[in-house]
Amino acid sequence: MSAHFYEVALFGEFFSQDLKAILNRITLHSESSQPMHAREIVFEPFDAQAQKNSGSDPVLLRARKELTEPSSGWALFSYLKPESVRVHPEATVRPWATCQVIGDALSFASALGYIRRSQIYKRGYVFRRGILVIQMFQQEQVDPKTQQPIPAHADTLWEVEVKTASPIRNTQETPLSHSVDAVLEVQLLMKGLLDLRRQDL
């Protein structure tokens, strides 16, 4: 058994005209829902290019802040390479490390030797279903002058992430197969409306 914590996930996307039908179906099968507006900043190691040149994948660090809750702090997290499709053909299973940061996550990341690579805002809805969180959002670009988000165009694709709400360990009590089954259940519920699939990120 591995000491890693994992995230199990499926991904999908759809056009705005399907929003109402998809919203209705997800709401029907979720315990709760709330608006979501998050800022995400992606950092890469300052020597990322050198790492790539030597054939290794640099580990990216992500900082996320929920803007609908003014008091919420930053969460820093990092994903490692997803497990191979042979091991987990139906869902993306990737080692996942996360930590809450009190204060300035951005300075913290640079103190770890990371530099900012990109940032996006995500606006939409977040649903809870058992051990899963379902995020449904449009990406907003950032105004270079004000650094504030620019509302997404009506035609912007909606993205959906169905994933385990917190990192899980693969143990006898909580085998990864339970989480895989949970995301596959959502895949089945959305069949015909939304194609949820494994993704190698």
Alpha-carbon distance between the termini? 24 Å
Largest sheet: 8 strands, antiparallel, barrel
Helicity level, as a percent range?
Answer: 10-25%
How many whole angstroms does the radius of gyration measure? 17 Å
Strand order of the largest sheet: 1-5-4-3-2-6-7-9
Number of helices: 4
Query: Mind telling me the CATH class?
Result: Mainly Beta
Instruction: Give me the count of strands.
Output: 10
Tell me the structural class. Answer: alpha+beta
Question: What oligomeric assembly is this protein in?
Answer: single chain
Protein model, in words:
The protein has helices at about 20-30, 50-55, 105-110, 175-190; strands spanning about 5-15, 30-45, 60-65, 75-80, 90-100, 115-130, 130-140, 150, 160-165, 170. With about 200 residues, the chain is an alpha+beta fold. The protein has one domain (about 5-190): Hypothetical Protein Pfu-838710-001 (Beta Barrel), CATH 2.40.320.10. It is globular and about 45 Å long. The mean pLDDT is about 90.
